[in-house]
Amino acid sequence: MAGVTNLPFRLLVKEQGVGLVFTETLSARGIVHGSEKTFKMALGTPEERPLAAQLFGSDPDLLAQAAGILESRGVDLLDVNLGCPVSKFARSFAGAVLMREPEKVRKILTAIRRRIRIPLTVKMRSGWDAQSINAPEVARIAEQCGVDAISIHPRTRAQGYSGQADWRVTAEVVKAVRVPVFGNGDVTTPERARRLRDETGCAGIMIGRAAMGNPWIFSQVREYLETGHVTRAAIDPEARRSLMRRHLAALIAFMGEEGAAVRVMRKHLSWYTKGLPGGAQFRDAINRLDSRQCVEETIECFFERLRTGRGADLADPPDRDVAPLVNGEDFNEPACEDYAG
User: How does 56-88 read in b/e, with b if 16+ C-beta sit within 10 Å?
Assistant: First the structure.
């Protein structure tokens, strides 16, 4: 996921028993032209192996060249994005736009398959819109081109992330090909993961948005699929607080610039606290901070209020034995002067 599955996030979810992690979506053009930013997004470590690099683009030769470069740099698997619905991809005729051009997909996958020896996979959508559901057709083309597995998010590009994922399309793709098919879309609980597997016959489960702020979902799903129950259905506040701080520290170390890392971390902190008492006020405060110290103090204050049962009323000043982080009496005031105005 662009802007989410960087190295620190991948390492955190790997701790939860994930079998395969993917880089952020990488520009084929950026790889070929030697973009330092793009190569950093592809940076991996032994702890997260196997690592899949996901490429986007529309030029078969450029994609094949980028795939070869990534293979030479040690990625374990190459995934081609045929599913991203965002406008940025559409403008460059990449992502889900390619579902409208099956023969273009054939050229792309044929060129890449000729260039690399590592496993090749594709991630696709149901089709462009409700009138052009063609995932089974594109899946068959991908198989003919030599892909080793297929992932399907059964929404159309027109849907974006609205409505419901139509798992019936996933089942059709499973029947259309012999290679493994991984189901994706609306897998928000362990129970839904098993339903997806049972209803579609898919070989595996891919989880994306449901892991944002909830990396524990992977260990929960794995346990449920293996045993039929989940030992740790609810995540206690201390585990949540600890992971938030670890994530922040890892992101700062990875990015090398505190302010930039804090700004990226804001969305993760918002996801981690979604649904918790006082979470909306916490997110309002966090989104105006730019320093690690201020963010860590705000995290500590938030969880202290949860512990003492005051999480829903953040207008009260924090206890004096908690790091003071407010100017005056309102939690929503920024803790430091270096907040983003």
Answer: bbbbbebbbbbbbbbbeeebebbbbbbbbbeee
The C-alpha R_g of the chain, in whole angstroms, comes to 22
Cβ contact 295:269 at 8 Å: yes
The total number of residues shown for the chain amounts to: 341
Q: Any idea which residues carry the catalytic annotation?
A: 84
DSSP-derived letter for residue 204 is E
Q: What is the pLDDT of residues 223-268, one digit of tens each?
A: 999 999 998 878 899 999 999 999 999 999 999 999 999 999 999 9
Measured torsion, CA atoms of residues 75, 80, 86, 91, in degrees rounded to the nearest 10 = 110
Cα dihedral 261/264/270/272 (nearest 10): -60
182: exposed, middle or buried (Cβ count in 10 Å: 0-12, 13-18, 19+)? buried
Measuring CA to CA, which residue among 197, 33, 43, 20 is closest to residue 119? 20
Question: Is-contact 318 326, C-beta < 8 A?
Answer: yes
Cβ-Cβ contacts under 8 Å for 63 (sequence gap 6 or more): 28, 55, 57, 80, 108, 111, 112
Q: Which amino acid is at 97?
A: V
What predicted TM-score, i.e. pTM, was given to this entire model?
0.86
CB 202 within 8 A of CB 174: yes
The model's pLDDT over 308-322, given as tens digits with 9 standing for 90+, comes to 887 544 443 333 333
Which CATH superfamily groups domain 7-227?
Aldolase class I (3.20.20.70)
pLDDT band at 338 (very low <50, low <70, confident <90, very high): very low
Kindly tell me if the per-residue pLDDT of 324 is higher than 50.
no
Kindly list the domain boundaries of the chain, sorted by start residue: 7-227, 235-341
pLDDT in tens, 100-159: 999 999 999 999 999 999 999 999 999 999 999 999 999 999 999 999 999 999 999 999
Q: What whole-number distance in Å separates Cα of residue 110 and Cα of residue 92?
A: 20
d(CA 38, CA 314) in angstroms, rounded, equals 40
End-to-end CA distance of the chain: 28
